[in-house]
Design goal:
Elements: E1 5-9, H1 11-25, E2 29-33, H2 35-40, H3 43-52, E3 57-62, H4 63-71, E4 78-82, H5 89-94, E5 98-101, H6 104-117, E6 121-128, E7 136-137, H7 140-154, E8 158-164, H8 176-194, E9 201-205, H9 207-212, E10 220-221, E11 245-250, E12 253-257, E13 262-263, E14 269-270, E15 275-280, E16 297-300, E17 303-308, E18 316-321, E19 330-334, H10 344-351, H11 355-360, E20 368-369
Parallel strand pairs: 1-20, 2-3, 2-10, 3-4, 4-5, 5-6, 6-7, 6-8, 8-9, 9-10
Antiparallel strand pairs: 1-11, 11-19, 12-15, 13-14, 15-18, 16-17, 16-19, 17-18
This protein binds pyridoxal-5'-phosphate.
Residues 33, 35, 61, 81, 166, 206-207, 222-226, 232 line the site of pyridoxal-5'-phosphate (PLP).
């Protein structure tokens, strides 16, 4: 079916990016982070591409995402990280989803769910090594969690598979918190091992750390953004990664207007001369940032054009000057950049945000297409 706009995802690029990350991981396993619809690229499709490229684990934020991977027939080791009390942990255990445990309540609920399910829950202990977000802080909190987890393991309720933490500033090479977090992770892991933990995997590295910090790779790395071909550290370049997503829309209407025509809500753009306008059928309801009004560029008829006036819910306007363009002609909003279109990184830079937000926010009204086929 013909659609006004689509996000084309190059699954071959995802597989290639995983291969590059595996090389950089130098023997550590790769857990492909596919949370938030694989950063907007399509959960199951991107997950299969990552596995084809050599990832051996999948990681998501919410339990519901892990269960959807299972529904899609993907049985590989999958870790769910963020939960609240009362979630269906029994189903998680029954369907072989690994769970991150960073608080006593989680350990209690997961152990009880495992008893009901009649099999041990696979858990990864989460250490807060300096991000001050999830996980148990070093000292009493960590010791209490580790000791309780090992007791639950001895009772057969859990299997303590992993120990993990997360960097706050890995995208800022040389930031003093990086060495401090690696040190804290090493110490907290050592405490647990001395107490009797037998971890299969110790893991800390996100994309930035996988690419820039060999000492942070441990047994497994957890790249996210780099899988999708976007750099985690823009000032260090693209690391040879290939952006997987190209966002396109067809011109819905092309028309001549006279000089002095106010364009879109608020008339924040006025045509300087007689000109041709094109209506592009995506808006903030599709995830195009309204802050991109009069700011973001797109590629239309082979030339960069800035969004003219405000981004609306379902559409925006561009000023084509005298360029010939017809309704139905394809406009490229962002992509790998090889046809002259902006990249998601360029959009992020213009907006003062990160590429993660650009690709993740593209909404469900924009269908994902996989022109190269599934992997
Ligand atoms: C999202 C996430 C990652 C991946 O981070 P990137 O910066 O996208 O590589 C790694 N670990 C955890 C726990 C995450 O939530």
């Amino acid at each position: 079916m013909k659609v006004p706009a689509e996000a084309r995802v190059d699954l071959g690029a995802i597989a290639d990016n995983i291969r590059l990350l595996r090389e950089r991981a130098a023997g550590a396993e790769v857990m492909a982070m596919v949370k938030a619809e694989a950063y907007g690229h399509g959960l199951a499709e991107a997950a299969r591409a990552a596995l084809a490229g050599g990832a051996t684990w999948l990681g998501v934020a919410k339990l519901g995402e892990a269960l959807r991977l299972r529904d899609a027939g993907i049985a590989v080791r999958t870790l769910a990280c963020v939960g609240v009390p009362g979630e269906p942990y029994e189903e998680a255990v029954a369907r072989d989803v690994d769970l991150m445990v960073g608080a006593m309540w989680t350990l209690r609920e997961v152990a009880q769910a495992a008893e009901r399910a009649g099999r041990p829950a696979r858990i990864h202990l989460k250490a807060d090594t300096g991000m001050s977000r999830g996980g148990a802080r070093g000292g009493d909190d960590w010791e209490e969690l580790v000791d309780a987890a090992l007791t639950a393991e001895a009772l057969g309720h859990v299997r303590v598979v992993g120990v993990m933490s997360h960097f706050a500033c890995a995208d800022e090479p040389g930031h003093p918190s990086i060495a401090a977090q690696i040190g804290a992770f090493t110490d907290m892991t050592e405490y647990a091992e001395k107490a009797g933990a037998r971890f299969e995997v110790r893991h800390l590295a996100n994309s930035a750390a996988t690419l820039t910090l060999p000492e942070a790779r441990f047994d497994l790395v957890r790249p996210g953004i780099a899988i999708y071909g976007l750099t985690p550290v823009p000032r260090l370049g693209d690391f040879g990664l290939r952006p997987a997503m190209t966002l396109v829309a067809d011109a819905a209407l092309v028309k001549r207007v006279p000089a002095g025509s106010g364009v879109s809500y608020g008339h924040t753009y006025t045509t300087a001369r007689d000109t041709t306008l094109a209506v592009v059928p995506v808006g903030y309801g599709d995830g195009i940032p309204r802050h991109g009004s009069n700011l973001l560029e797109v590629l239309a008829g082979g030339r960069r054009r800035t969004i003219a006036g405000r981004v609306c819910m379902d559409q925006f306007v561009i000023d084509l000057g005298d360029d010939p363009l017809s309704a139905g002609d394809e406009i490229v909003l962002f992509g790998p950049g090889d046809r002259g279109e902006p990249t998601a990184q360029e959009w992020a830079d213009a907006l003062g945000t990160i590429s993660y937000e650009i690709v993740t926010r593209i909404g469900s009204r924009v269908p994902r297409a996989y022109p190269g086929g599934a992997l």
